[in-house]
Amino acid sequence: MEPSTDPMVRARELSKRYGRTQAVSELGFAVESGQICGLLGPNGAGKTSTMRMLVGLSAPDTGSAEILGSPVALGAGVLRRVGVLIDGPAFVPHLSGLGNLRLLWSATRRAWPPPALADALDLAGLGPAIDRKVKGYSMGMKQRLMLAQALMRAPDVLILDEPANGLDPAEVRALREHLAALARHGAAVLVSSHQLAEVQQLATHIVVMNHGRLVTAGPLAGLLDDTSTYRVQVDDGERAATVLRRTAGAATITVRGGEVTVTAPGVPARELVHSLVTAGVGVTAVHQASRSLEEVFLTMTRGDDDHAAR
Ligand SMILES: Nc1ncnc2c1ncn2[C@@H]1O[C@H](COP(=O)(O)OP(=O)(O)OP(=O)(O)O)[C@@H](O)[C@H]1O
């Protein structure tokens, strides 16, 4: 085994069926050190089932999950290096927040306190409430305690299912900054979310799944580039639009003042600029447009069955 070449997290052709539901089908992807990978998919796509297999909470029917190059199963030693938030641990209601963390930590058989307790509590931001019984906690407070539980062990790998649920915008931002700092220090983070705008700000990579299958996986930046749409700043928008309408390949053109947005699949920017300038239109700037993650996601998962078949 050569640990240096192994990704931190690897799903190898994972499959899982529940009765008649094929929750996950031959799913493969990897998350490397320093990456924050958003696991995306519509409801029921198989995200939670995938995460459960990655941390040994359920066994795949076929395929395997590996963390830091080691196969994962319930109780596997490598899981000590993983912070997990899935379904949430069952907190003991009559114990305090801190009492619950202590109880969960005791399962590791390591001395209290955990290495990153202070940072985890800081992020959880529960203040004096950390010493109050969990039964009086709001949903948001429980969610923050769950995050503290996942982070207190200073994990190398984080697997978080919908971690921003129940958090307010300031807390979401604090979480984003915390995860980014962990990734900068070499952690690998896999995080599922329905909040695409949030993922767009947080993730370096994404894995999109639908009907249990992989739709796409890769760096976020490349995915958001729209190589066929340009925003062109000109001295005369209407005139530019007239010229562009005559240019072969320019499919849609919208004008807003001195800015023209043109979709021209396969037409290089220099060709568009050339036709404009030749026709006497002054061009001050050309930018390639980028799409939002939401647009990309909806396009990928809309005609689901053709994407799933790719
Ligand atoms: N323990 C189970 N028993 C039976 N069916 C299950 C079980 N767990 C998941 N499923 C089914 O497997 C499919 C995938 O579910 P999963 O929870 O993994 O999806 P998800 O992408 O996490 O969805 P959501 O975004 O709604 O949380 C769904 O059809 C779900 O009903």
UniProtKB/TrEMBL annotation:
Cell division listed as a keyword: no
Stated family: Belongs to the ABC transporter superfamily.
Residue span(s) of domain ABC transporter: 9-236
Alphabetically ordered keywords of this record: ATP-binding, Nucleotide-binding, Transport
Protein name: ABC transporter domain-containing protein
UniProt xrefs under InterPro entries: AAA+_ATPase, ABC_transporter-like_ATP-bd, P-loop_NTPase
